[in-house]
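--- STAGE predict ---
source: upstream dedup step, 1 unique chain passed
mode: sequence only
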Amino acid sequence: MTIRVLAFSVLFAATSVSAMEGYYTSPALRGDAVVFTAEGDLWIHHLGEAQAERLTTHPTLETQASISPDGKNIAFAADYEGVQEIYLMPVSGGVPKRLTYENSGVVIHEWTADGRILYSTIGRAGPPSYFILKTVNPTTLETGTLPLADAFGGSIDARREYVYFTQFGLGISGDSANIYRGGMLGKLWRYRLGSNDEASRIAAEHLGSVRRPMVSGEKLYFISDASGRDNIWSMDLDGSNAEQITQHDEFSIRAASLDNGRVIYQLGADLQVLDLASRKSSKLNIQLASDHPSLREQWVTDPLTYITSARLSGDFDKVVVTARGRAAIAGIDQTRLVSVGSPIDSRLRNASLSHDGKSVYAISDASGETELWRYDATGATAAVQLTKDGSGLRGDFVESPDGEWVAHHDGNGGLWLLNTKTQKNKRIADDSLSLQKIVWSPDSKRLAITHNTMVDFRPRLFLYDIDSGKQAYLTSDNYEAGTPAFSRDGTWLYFLSNRHFANSSASVWTDRDFGPEFIDRTEVYALALTEEAEFPFAIPTELSAPKPEQDEVAEDEDEKADEPAIVVAWDGLLNRIWQVPLPAGNYTDLLVNEGLLYVQSVPNAPDAKSEIKVLKLEPLAEAAAFTDNVISMGLSDNGEKLFVWRQSAELPELYIVPAEDVFPEDLSKNTVQVDGWQFSIDPRLEWEQFFHDAWLMHREQFYDARMRGVDWEAMKQKYTPLARRVTERRELNDVLAQMMGELNALHSSIRGGDVPVDPETPVPASLGALLEQTAKGVAIEHIYRHDAELPSLAPPLARPGVDAAEGDIIVSINGIETPTLELLHRALRNQAGKQVLLQLRRERKEVKTVVVPVDADGNYTLVYSDWVNRNRSKVVAKDADIAYLHLEAMGEEDVASFARDFYANLNKKGMVIDVRRNNGGNVDSWIIDRLLRKAWSFWTSRQGGDPYTNMQNTFRGHLVVLADERTYSDGETFVAAIKQL
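--- STAGE serialize ---
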């Protein structure tokens, strides 16, 4: 056990039986009552007291607490029913009552003077990430919408005359930055309630990004990063006299809430109360009286859920599996499963059994850096750290067959050679973008490497001789080449290379021609390392040497030990390449044994599963299917056993099968026995490792090696105390967000984590329409629009065969009466993808129809489609000779959307390409390339008609590109390219 582990274990033992400090977020204040979130639950603390009391216990996160003006109730946000909504409960505790049914998430801001709750949510109509301000009556559940666009935060004055609101800010994108001055800068606005006036910008000259407006009397308080960190500021209600109130320069203020001349806010992991009159803040000393359920020892009973690697080494019937930073040796027999004895506050990567079966090699961060370690395969002796030469993320490693060397590479493009006896580690190559695959020759004398540089994105094969240090490229930079595999006798080096170019596009004279497309580009090649090597696939001629008889082959096997060492004929290597007679395909891996060649292939078809094909090493051989659903494969040292990792619908399937040409039908004796693998985790120690891992990955992979001038080592020391306060996984995300914010870079959002979930949480469903509560019941106000030529994309109420219309009243669902929106949404729970019976009232007529509701993601798509189609209708109504298309992002689906809409409008006189709210991606260059095409000549048919152009499919009209504050990443790149080109 390391000193770090011991220290944390003692800390846990000392604090698990008594009250302790937690990690406090999302505070609210009313009188002497403070409500906040810790351990994923709501707690209440009374000023002047020491301990806080837990209010909620649900596995789901409860957050954004806001206490009613009379101090009796708490509004908060929670995901109890599949989406985050607003709930209400008494301060004294009780069953929460659901208040909203937005089905799109909520952000609570405050209680208004008339007892309603002000919140923001993504609108059910409008562009993506279109936030609106709404209010809800906690008694009647009646909601109201403020007529404001992109209102993310808000506060209403006590006279209910004005609402002060913010537009945009990084809270929308989820990025973490202490200073932000980009287009999504948070801005302050003021709107007179109930009027037809436009909202007016206030404090436009303020330099900071503004969020969390809070009105108190004649002052507006808010959070701004104008000083370089988020602090509390104030200004007059007209936006004048902006003044910084708090002066925090170590941590940025997170959430904040106002009450009667005081502001409570999160700073670091603590809560502070600011007295606005004296401008002094004081930290609240809060202790959690808790059994800390998230800190208890936990058992991982399904490690394969977290599998990251599985490797076969040597000639053994055993595989080393790495999952969730742990590793275990598992076999296909009944021998015990051996857990690799690594410190519990460290993470193992790519664990692999040594060729003699006595050790396990792995990359570990137990020392604080990613280093190569050796562990006893029986767990009897202590681990040995093999590399100690500093910083950098270690990549992969491969042990030589004789066990004397371990080749490994790092994230800085270096290739290293470690002597396992002397533990000397030397760098033998560098300046590579990536070293994708390293393999040893059977005699441990040579390394074949896939070497890649960023200059041309075409990896090349590289050969290195261990004894002489001689090295050479085996392929040119004309073609991608990689995935090397030595033949069993070491005289041949097989590899994959993308040299097959067969255009699958029919012609340039076709609809939506996107240019030539080359699929199945990969072919298998073999390079003769010696001049005497005989190509096994060569068709015999009259000059071919006769094949030895079977008894001669046996004698040759006995004499192999006496054969001289292989001597590579370095001169002319490039001229000794043979092509293996295997049809071109989309191959990703390659293995070779004495008589067979295995390739892993991914067919070019939607949702195609990777498969293994096998080819005999003999003339006129034809490839045969071996098995499918393959993740990876590996070969034993002697070439007699094949490891296959297949993916099933649930957990991975691991097999060690004979390396023959047929996959066994009965796998009962070939299945790697990992069912019994379980291990415990200490959450706090695992979270500390996660924290270190995140810090380390930023140090080694952030785009600026100088970390934008930030002392990154100091940042680790600064945020480690906060990480040690964490009592629940989501709190760690908050620490990571704060640490990442020091770099002031975008693409810095935090998501995910192994957080508690409620398996009984229902799934919300939607009918794909705007519904309105009326005196007569729930009315279908608007059915989302769609492309009528694509009926499969229609919303549920507009699908063929469904009889529903705008204005209909939804009387019941599946026989359950639905007079209110609340009852309707309850009736739709867990109905996504299922047939439901609607009873509708259309004037005096009763209509029954069956529909299939969609889930929340499907509804988001329908809202987006409705917005796009309404925009298109507006453009066409103005001028039918102007086209409109929108790109939601720059991904695969978006280039498909571009192809659908762009080519259908090539002959229009004008085109609007809308990239507002574009989330980025990487296909913008394809789109720009299409827009750069120019017509240089014209064709016409003998029948007459409009001429057509060369270049084909060229748009020749006027182009307008729309962008806004939310155009992000490669959406911005696209706009910049349009302006530049």
